[in-house]
Every structure is written in structure tokens, then in C-alpha cells.
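Appendix C reproduces, verbatim, an entry submitted by the partner laboratory led by Prof. M.T., so that reviewers can inspect both the input and the predicted structure.
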Amino acid sequence: MYIPHEFKIEDLKKITNFVDNNNFGILLSIYDNEIYNTQIPLMLGTENEKFILKGHIARANMQWYRSRDKNVTALFTGPHHYISPLYYKDKDSVPTWDYMTVRMDGKLELMDEEETRKFLLEMSRFYDAKWVEEGNDRKEYYSKMVLQIVAFKIKVSKINAKFKLSQNRPEDMENIAINLDSLGDADAVSVAKFIREEMKK
């Protein structure tokens, strides 16, 4: 991933917070010169003081079979927005886009049945505690559906994070944020918030 030094993020707390808040990621892998990709929620945690990602995909999706015990990439993206040159002091500029993304690479390992059930329950509690409290995970239909998915974990070996938030134009960052706020849409307002956080550094 190409990351100019102005946009490189190395603060692990900032990175993990970003992934936790934008955890609907893209699982990427290569098999026989073909790029496979699946969009799924991925839960970030630690195991033996190392970062791991946990997820699951449909058993019918052969990406799990062709990726097991191989290196894969998980890509996470967040709010993003068009940046107009009209926001700059120097009007002889070109349009661009501000965005944030985190890439995590590592080896994909399949979970056994016990690990799978434990993980699925953990994920259900995170997203829908009420559903778990009602005991739905103990119903027959749930047990049948569990057999239709394959759970895995990725032992993260490399992390790259890029927050492109106009840091290369420090003299314009506040005006960019003001203009994004004025647009009012959720992504614009969110990007403006992150730009201002970068200004505090």
C-alpha cells in the first residue's frame, strides 16, 4: 500500500480504534492468479500478545478452502470525501479525496467446531446481546446454520495504516474542515472531525 510519510499512521491505539469502528472489512487472497474478495465483519483481538482477526464466510464460498494456511489481506475503510481545490488558499490546485484505510496481513487458519461456536457466540453478543439472551443460539435451526459457515482467524503479521486527511496542506486544514462541515452529509462531517484531530498533533 502506497503511503506518503504525511499520511502514515503508526499509533496502534488509533489503528485498533479505527478497525473496531469500521470492522466490516474486505478479505483478499490470491489463488491460481485470481484475486478473491469477500466483504465480512472481522473482529480484532489478541492471542498470545499478538493481534488476530476472527471472521467467518459461507461454506459454499471457496475462498476459505483456497486460503487456508496461506497469507491473506484484510482491508478496512472508513469515511471518505471529495476535497475541492476551492477550499485551498492557493486556487491553482487540483481536486483530491481524503480517506482512511487500514491493511492487515497474516496467515489464515481455520477454527475447529468448538472454536467456531465460541466465536459465533462472542460475535453475536457483541452485535446483538438481546438475541443471545433469548437463547436463540440453542435452537435447532441455529445448529444447522452453523454447519453452513466456516470460521477462521488471521494471525496478523503486518499492519499498514493510511489516514489521508490533508496533512500535506496544514495551512488549509481548518478551512477544509469548515467546508466539509457545511456540506452536512455524514461522511463529510466525519472526515472534518478526523482532520481536526490530526491538526491537534
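The chain has a mean pLDDT of 94. Additional entries are available on request from the coordinating office.
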